Amino acid sequence: RGLNRVTLIGNLGNVPEYQVLEGGVSVAKFSLATNETFKDKNGKTRTETEWHSIVLWRSLAELARDYLQKGSLVYIEGKIKTRNYENKDGSKRYVTEIIAEQLIMLDKRSESDE
Question: Which tens digits make up the pLDDT trace of 4-22?
Fold first, then answer.
């Protein structure tokens, strides 16, 4: 038995790309930046950013389309999925994505939203 579970909190790197596929199934994709801050061997504080490809389906995709924008802070829970394809020159390429199963918007609501 295995477990494939990912939990991320980060900021959107771009506006979600939204589309409706055959059969009316909606999908949204965006990049998510997570930051890790630590002290290096010289005691200097450093921050490293990791980028993740996020994929949302159906109602989560519609939520992303309607409410998320570049820079939005979100909590994502889901699973890692790696798929492969052949590019134009016939080379095999691999893409690792996070398939989101839960999305929570963490941005503070502005007074104009209330």
Answer: 999 999 999 999 999 999 9
